[in-house]
Amino acid sequence: MMSSFHAIGLMSGTSLDGLDICYAKFTQTNSIWNFGILNCETLPYSSDWEQSLRNAVNLSSEELLKLNSDYGFYLGEKTSEFISKNKIINLDLIASHGHTVFHQPKNRFTLQIGDGRAIKSKTNKTVIFDFRSQDVILGGNGAPLVPIGDELLFSEFDACLNLGGFSNISLKRNGKRLAFDICPVNIILNDLALKLGKKYDENGDLAKSGMIDYELLEQLNQLKFYEEKAPKSLGTEWIKEQVLPLIKTQKPENLLATFTEHSAVQIAKVLDEFEIKNVLITGGGTYNNYLIEKIKAKTKTEIQIPKKEIIEYKEALIFAFMGVLRLQNLNNVLSSATGSLYDHSSGLIC
């Protein structure tokens, strides 16, 4: 027996590249899921929106509540425009990740702004949002969440690696899906590129022009997070406390060279530790040729780069899929990946 669903996934990453929108069809035949991406688009943030989201962590509670509402209406308006532009008729739900402001699972809270009720008011569609909070309440890291999609949509790969604001990996071990954050990537590289007047380090050319500071590299590689066992996750608070104090004093080119090397070292170490045969790499960092070359040089793992729409929209696609699972009250968060008490169906529905 086959069932099918049409869903839109909305994703805003920590690197603030823009809002990813992905419209996809999901079909289930018996227990096998398949997908097709029908339309997708990235909407760059205006300078005002980028600044507002970047500064959200510094707002008062009242200002943050207002931003939560305003950003929800923004998401609703952009999604409504996307639906009209692409003449979308079949749509069962909109699943929104929101934008992460705080992520402190050890303190039992996480916050992704963008009120789903505001999205619904602008689209008049079923909206599912706030996918992370329940997992944190259940003792999990609230991340990574995409392993459910890796498990059911991309099972032909030994592992899936995302190179976004942070790098995270998902793999199968002893019959369970294990997933965790590896290290910061674009959240640092993009910030350093901005100091040189660029939004990001295209192809890794800026890093390639710099010199690696091996003393700093050793300090970065010795950060305690890298010794912790999975499941584990990273947030902007960790960046501020552990990384930024180490990288303030040098030329941006040299810091880019050093941090690119650091990311490659940590990623290759994980690939080798788990003896990964082949890995699917997605996310904006996939276009950083210098970083990819560095990773390839440090591991025997076969690197698989998919087509552009998967590179750029895999996370938005999987959040749409998580919405489909939530609508049916099926588990969409794996405790083996997040460390929560049990697998569960997460997301608020309105």
How would you explain this protein's 3D organization?
The protein has 350 residues and is an alpha/beta fold. The chain folds into two domains: 2-143 and 314-349, Nucleotidyltransferase, domain 5, CATH 3.30.420; 147-309, ATPase, nucleotide binding domain (Nucleotidyltransferase, domain 5), CATH 3.30.420.40. It contains 13 helices and 13 strands. The chain has helices spanning 47-54, 61-85, 116-123, 133-137, 147-153, 186-194, 205-209, 214-221, 236-243, 252-273, 289-298, 308-327, 335-338, and strands spanning 2-12, 19-29, 32-43, 93-96, 99-104, 109-113, 127-129, 159-163, 166-173, 176-184, 278-282, 302-304, 348-349. The strands form three sheets. Strands 3-2-1-4-7-13 form a six-stranded mixed β-sheet. β5 and β6 form a beta hairpin. α6 runs antiparallel to α10 (252-273), α8 (214-221) packs across α10 and α10 (252-273) crosses α11. The chain is globular, with a radius of gyration of 19 Å. The two termini are 28 Å apart. The mean pLDDT is 95.
